[in-house]
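The instructor's notes for this session suggest beginning with a concrete chain rather than abstract definitions. Hand out the sequence below and ask the class to guess, before any prediction is shown, which regions might be ordered.
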Amino acid sequence: MDDWKGAQSTVRLVRPVGYIAALVGALGGVGGLVITWLQNQSRMTPGPWPNAPTTITVVAFFVAAVGGVAFARRHEWGRIAVLLFAILFLGGQAVSALGFAVSTLTAGYRLQENLTQLQQIGSWVFRSFAALTSLAMAAALAWVTVLLVRWLLSEEVVALCRDDDTPAATEQEALNPSVIDAARVGDLVTLRLLLAGGMDAESLDQRGRSALHWVALSGGTPQIARTLIEHGASPGRADKSGHTALDYAEESGAKPLIEVMRTVDGRR
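After discussion, reveal the predicted structure:
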């Protein structure tokens, strides 16, 4: 049950994280355009607008905005876009805060001849406080970056965003913590989440049937069967009536499913 709760937490976090990334990306992109426009208007002799670094930055923000929406909808490329955005944006901000802290603290030790000793002490205290605040901000940003990157690279998120032709589970289906139910309804996304969370692919119901048995009985897809087999499910395991998953598949005449199971079971 703890594994299921962890998987459900992943499902719940994907949408808000995606839309937050989209919002930050959109605001950053629009803000970059506005700031560049204002800077251009303040010049006596307008230069090229926008310049190359600004263009790259603005484009990156808008790509992050689109990628955030795609990630919220569980697309793999959206996950990659949000991952890169987290590293470049949050990580970059952490490095900037650290650089500001170092430069501020260093400047605080420089004595200025035009200031009195009291003013120099006050300046040093102020700069030290600003430097420590920046250091704390840099540490916090670095910590958030590491957590977010680790989460985006976790098996649960990768499984959730992996491209396939199977529709995502409905909210009602997602509440059922059963590998067998996910396999029986053909929900590949939820099945991968459960298996990535450590749930047993060989769990049995009261009749001794595994998820692979129910894939065969319900006419499931080869992708579902292959996923279960990759996580340890055996087509040759018999239920209480003595029938294996391969037996049920052969009875139903599902040739693609039979081929997947025979490859593992050894029958030809």
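Then share the key points. The mean pLDDT is 75. The chain has two domains: 2-161, 171-265.
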